TrEMBL record:
InterPro entries: G_OBG, GTP-bd, GTP-bd_Obg/CgtA, GTP-bd_prot_GTP1/OBG_C_sf, GTP1-OBG_CS, GTP1_OBG_dom, GTP1_OBG_dom_sf, OBG_GTPase. GO terms for cellular component: cytoplasm. Monomer. GO terms for biological process: ribosome biogenesis. Belongs to the TRAFAC class OBG-HflX-like GTPase superfamily. OBG GTPase family. Residues 1-158 form the Obg domain. Mg(2+) binds at residues 172, 192. It is found in: Cytoplasm. Keywords: Cytoplasm, GTP-binding, Hydrolase, Magnesium, Metal-binding, Nucleotide-binding. This is GTPase Obg. Transmembrane segments: none annotated. It comes from Agathobacter ruminis. Its cofactor is Mg(2+). Its EC number is 3.6.5.-. The gene is obg.
Length: 427
């Protein structure tokens, strides 16, 4: 079976605990604290593997965990960092939070490697807690906890052109004729249960990827039959070719078929109908005269809307050259970059959502925000990167911290201090 989706549980590595120990050396009376820091837990990283085209590896194993950091040791020895867990996925895989359905990462375009869960920060050893009044601290900081979440992996095929249409209209035959793909072809409904990809090579080095998308039935947008699989893959395509039976061998109404598909596209995502479309009126080898009533009706129905009709025979190859040059013309007008879903969710946010925090004014007028959730979020977030800082800013807003600062009278330019980090507040 084509592994189009998979649901797995991923867990980052727990940070190693800080160590409590004291110097015990000959001729060194009253040795001070020398407990080392714990190691950082391993990250969970998703990486694109060009050799993969399914999610099969994740259908038979459910849980994946990075390595925890080791505890610190005596004589200021730092604990070993936990090994990262690298999960290989095919290009086009979208990683979503299973609970909310929000996008965590889209492994497409330039995004070949993504840290989805950061390992816990190692705890500090007792050497860090020595003060003039507490010279023998018996406390060390525990390592940060691991984060464990369930994610949904969805493979959305990346193809320039998608062949859409009801089952048994000749999509697989058309794909095999214009590319080097070798899809299974049979005269049965719903024979295509997975997207088949092929490359169309044209003159002057121009080529494009074309996909035979799984057959659609009415109700697809509601998940009927293969519907969601069909619609998931069509999201990435730039141009759609509606393939219909122009000879009427299946007893179907091609106009109704195209309208039904358009209605399903609209119900799933109205933006899909804005993609350039063209109609391939297939099976003209079974028509005695040059152009029959079906083709004339298709022209009358759709060409006023700018959707051109091209009579073709996927079996004999007649009309394919004209169709492919039209598709080339449409592709040249499309944006070159791959459509990539924007991240909507940071797994760390929910993990620390219910932990307390405090906001106080320091003697120098700065607003000091502290609490376990703040400390942990700073440990898991790379605020030096633009993306990481925006996620942290979003976290502060969603937790109501920014609103509370505003209620306390914070003004533009005021300082906000959080565990050694200082920020200038601007609304």
């Amino acid at each position: 079976m084509f592994a189009d989706r998979a649901k797995i549980i991923i867990k980052s590595g727990k940070g190693g605990d800080g160590h409590v120990s004291f110097r015990r050396e000959k001729y060194v009376p009253d040795g001070g604290p020398d407990g080392g820091d714990g190691g950082t837990g391993g990250d969970v990283i998703f990486e694109v593997d060009p050799g993969l085209n399914t999610l099969t590896d994740y259908r038979h194993r459910r849980k994946f965990a990075a390595e925890p950091g080791q505890e610190g040791g005596k004589k200021n020895c730092h604990g070993k960092n936990g090994a990262d867990l690298i999960l290989k996925v095919p290009e086009g895989t979208v990683i979503k939070d299973a609970e909310s359905g929000k996008v965590i990462a889209d492994m497409s375009g330039d995004n070949k490697r993504q840290i989805v869960l950061r390992g816990g920060r190692g705890g500090k050893g007792n050497q860090h807690y020595a003060t003039p009044t507490m010279q023998a601290p018996k406390y060390a900081q525990p390592g940060q906890d691991a984060i464990e979440i369930e994610v949904q992996l969805e493979l959305k095929v990346i193809a320039d052109v998608g062949l859409v249409g009801f089952p048994n209209v000749g999509k697989s035959t058309l794909l095999s004729r214009v590319t080097n793909a070798q899809p299974k072809i049979a005269n049965y409904h719903f024979t295509t249960l997975q997207p088949n990809l092929g490359v169309v090579d044209m003159d002057e080095g121009f080529g494009f990827v074309i996909a035979d998308i799984p057959g659609l039935i009415e109700g697809a947008s509601e998940g009927v039959g293969l519907g969601h699989e069909f619609l998931r893959h069509i999201e990435r395509t730039k141009v759609m070719i509606h393939v219909v039976d122009a000879a009427g061998t299946e007893g179907r109404d091609p106009i109704k078929d195209i309208r039904d598909i358009m209605n399903e596209l609209k119900a799933y995502n109205p933006e899909l109908l804005k993609k350039p479309q063209v109609i391939a009126a297939n099976k003209i080898d079974a028509i005695y005269e040059g152009e029959n009533e079906i083709i004339s009706s298709l022209r009358k129905e759709f060409e006023p809307d700018g959707i051109e009709v091209y009579p073709i025979s996927a079996v004999s190859g007649k009309g394919l050259r004209e169709l492919l040059y039209k598709v080339k013309e449409l592709l040249e007008k499309c944006p070159k970059e791959t459509f990539v879903y924007e991240p909507q969710f940071d797994p760390s946010v929910r993990f620390f959502a219910n932990e307390p925090y405090t906001i106080e004014r320091a003697d120098d007028g700065a607003y000091v925000v502290e609490g376990p959730k703040i400390d942990k979020m700073l440990g898991y977030t790379n605020i030096d990167s633009e993306k990481g800082f925006l996620f942290f800013q979003k976290f502060l807003k969603e937790q109501g911290i920014l609103k509370e600062l505003e209620d306390m009278g914070i003004q533009d330019g005021d300082t906000v201090r959080m565990y050694g980090n200082e920020f200038d507040y601007y609304k």
